[in-house]
Specification:
This protein is of the alpha+beta class and 282 residues long. It is built from nine helices and ten strands. It has one domain. Strands 1-2-8-3 form a four-stranded antiparallel beta sheet, sandwiched between helices. Strands 4-5 form a two-stranded antiparallel sheet. A two-stranded antiparallel sheet has the order 6-7. The chain binds iron/sulfur cluster (2 copies).
Length: 282
């Protein structure tokens, strides 16, 4: 039987992975899911003009799908064609227990489950991208995840922005909008992790679901302002990464000492706020 590759195919593959794969278990805590098997997926055409606009919004260094895929094709000696490219973006829903724990644990430091989600959940997220690439390869479809390739991917530390932003692909694919705190507000809530990959296959775009206002779903309630321990969020300046980042980095010694894992984390502005579990009502 010929497999039909569409949005449902990606949803089923990712949810199946989240159900069965050991990397989605909080094995060093209680064995529960890191991410609920409840993914949402959006798709956008690889030649959508929004990626060119990201060069102005994020920076010239942010790659268009075509640039990233052309680089990959050159490295892998694959013939490059950009006419069929689609971006598949997805949002992984953080376990409710983790959100509740991070809300109640401390006003400055992340909880154990949150720190484990940051470290092991991100590994599971990377595994999902590799898994999808392999599954597509079995069907003779090429896919590439720019954020997984150390030769290509980098973070511009002057402004703390990467050259391939999963969140911006989620926005392009109509999955939600940004919020005052820079978090991505969507139907599963701002407390999430997300991923994206380039697929060399024409798929129907969800660009029509993309709001014209990048902050469409943020109600400006200000909940996230009061949750931030270092005042990195304000109505005037929105989210100041230059204040946020040093605090997030400063959590490393605490996490190593308290939980025995080497990672940074905070996410206090993602829990206990109006958009933690979904799109807030206006
Ligand atoms: S907590 Fe309120 S102000 Fe902050 S991002 Fe969410 S909706 Fe916007
Ligand atoms: S991640 Fe932490 S430090 Fe950064 S804005 Fe959110 S609450 Fe503030």
């Amino acid at each position: 039987m010929i497999e039909v590759i569409n949005k449902d195919w990606f949803i089923n593959k990712i949810n199946g992975f989240l159900e069965d794969n050991e990397s989605n278990k909080m094995n060093k805590v209680d064995g529960s899911f890191i991410f609920e098997p409840d993914v949402i997926v959006g798709i956008v055409d690889g030649n959508d003009a929004i990626y060119t606009r990201y060069k102005t919004i994020i920076g010239e260094f942010h790659l268009t799908p075509s640039e990233a895929y052309e680089w990959y094709c050159k490295e892998e000696s694959i013939e490059f064609k950009n006419c069929n490219l689609s971006i598949v973006a997805y949002i992984l829903h953080i376990n409710q227990k983790t959100k509740t724990e991070n809300l109640n644990y401390s006003k400055t430091m992340p909880s154990e489950r949150w720190a484990h989600t940051r470290l092991f959940g991100e590994q599971a997220n990377r595994n999902i991208q590799e898994y999808l690439i392999d599954e597509l390869k079995n069907l003779e479809i090429t896919a590439f995840a720019p954020a997984l390739d150390k030769r290509l991917f980098f973070i511009n530390k002057n402004i703390w922005a990467s050259n391939w932003s999963h969140r911006h692909s989620c926005f392009a694919a109509g999955l939600g909008s940004f919020g005052l705190s820079d978090g991505f507000i969507n139907s599963r809530g701002k407390a999430m992790r997300c991923g994206s990959l380039i697929v060399d296959l024409k798929l129907p775009t969800d660009a029509l679901n993309r709001p014209s206002d990048p902050y469409e779903f943020c109600t400006n309630c200000g909940d996230c302002i009061s949750r931030c321990p270092v005042n990195a969020i304000s109505f005037e300046n929105r989210h100041d990464k230059m204040i946020c980042e040093p605090h997030v980095s400063s959590t490393v010694p605490f996490i190593i000492k308290t939980y025995g894992i080497d990672i940074y984390g905070c996410g206090l502005c993602q829990v206990g706020v109006a958009c933690s579990n979904g799109i807030p009502k206006k």
